[in-house]
DNA sequence: TTGTGTTTTATTGCCTCC
DNA sequence: GGAGGCAATAAAACACAA
């Protein structure tokens, strides 16, 4: 049996023996006045057990409790809390990944805007030159006919360079972005109203489907799909659905490994269906047919 | 030493499944 | 209806700066 840690403010033994521990009367009489932390050895064994399987069957619980010299109830509580910690960390990691994808996409978008502006000014400049040339030659020979009218040329150029949607004013765009970020963070921190998970999954899906360099389709994802029970799928034995190299690992900061590689957004097909409902589709008179608005994901 | 923030252990209440 | 899961929360234990 692994005794409880001593020397950390423990004033008396918490338990005496595993057998006594399993006797309700003993436990009732010996209820600790204060909470006691588990020893590193106990935590280590619990962690290892959690890595094997994050849910506890009654037999395993009893066995673990016996080995550790704890109440079965304590083992169950530890697993419950451990699952909660794992989930929190996973959400943080998912958020970081999604934010990185978003930032990269935004940079892409900004670069495209710059390109667009540059090309448009080229069109204007070339059109100007053409107009000047036309005027000069018109003066020279008085002949009206040889060149097409500037308007025609310009229209022809415009056929090649698609007229873009009007750009939002930079200040207004920045303010709107700020507001969206605040709203998003509010949802994450308070959990009120919208779902941070769903919002984040939106962004992930957006990246995966239409993003450019930022797309990381290999990122395993947890999307809150139909099976609410599958909360830990994608992580080895965490659930019924297994993705690639799984396996529960311990927290980064406890030195026993990490939960890296598992994500809360796994059901990408469900998410794709969700996405398709939130994008506008090609139809005859839509100039942007088939494209997805950059802004939809925030609105 | 003390105040404060974080982590861990434990409880409560609600929900789902069998 | 009981068992077990989860979210929310309380409270003790711990870490650490001032």
Automatic annotation (TrEMBL):
Residues 159-172 have a biased composition (Acidic residues). This is Homeobox-leucine zipper protein. GO terms for molecular function: DNA-binding transcription factor activity, RNA polymerase II-specific; identical protein binding; sequence-specific DNA binding. Pfam families: HALZ, Homeodomain. Residues 88-136 form a coiled coil. Residues 177-188 have a biased composition (Basic and acidic residues). Transcription factor. It is found in: Nucleus. It comes from Zea mays (Maize). Residues 31-90 bind DNA. Its main location: nucleus. Keywords: Coiled coil, DNA-binding, Homeobox, Nucleus, Transcription, Transcription regulation.
């Amino acid at each position: 049996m692994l005794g409880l840690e001593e020397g950390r403010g423990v004033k008396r033994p918490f338990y005496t023996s595993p057998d006594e521990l399993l006797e309700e009367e003993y436990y009732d009489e010996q209820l600790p006045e204060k909470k006691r932390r588990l020893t590193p050895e106990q935590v280590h064994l619990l962690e290892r057990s959690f890595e094997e399987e994050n849910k506890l069957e009654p037999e395993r619980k009893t066995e673990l409790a016996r080995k550790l010299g704890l109440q079965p109830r304590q083992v169950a509580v530890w697993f419950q809390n451990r699952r909660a910690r794992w989930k929190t960390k996973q959400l943080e990691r998912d958020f970081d990944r999604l934010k990185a994808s978003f930032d990269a996409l935004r940079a892409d978008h900004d670069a495209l805007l710059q390109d667009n502006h540059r090309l448009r000014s080229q069109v204007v400049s070339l059109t100007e030159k053409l107009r000047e040339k036309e005027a000069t030659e018109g003066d020279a020979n008085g002949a009206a006919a040889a060149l097409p009218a500037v308007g025609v040329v310009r229209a022809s150029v415009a056929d090649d360079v698609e007229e873009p949607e009007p750009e939002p004013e930079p200040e207004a765009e920045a303010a709107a972005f700020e507001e969206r970020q605040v709203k998003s963070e509010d949802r994450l921190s308070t959990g009120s109203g919208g779902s941070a998970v769903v919002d984040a999954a939106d962004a992930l899906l957006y990246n995966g489907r239409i993003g450019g360099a930022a797309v990381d389709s290999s990122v395993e994802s947890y999307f809150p799909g139909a099976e609410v029970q599958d909360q830990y799928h994608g992580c080895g034995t965490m659930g019924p659905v297994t993705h690639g190299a799984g396996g529960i690992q311990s927290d980064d900061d406890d030195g026993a490994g990490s939960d890296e590689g598992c994500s809360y957004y796994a059901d990408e097909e469900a998410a794709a269906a969700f996405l398709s409902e939130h994008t506008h589709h090609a139809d005859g008179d839509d100039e942007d047919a088939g494209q997805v608005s950059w802004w939809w994901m925030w609105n």
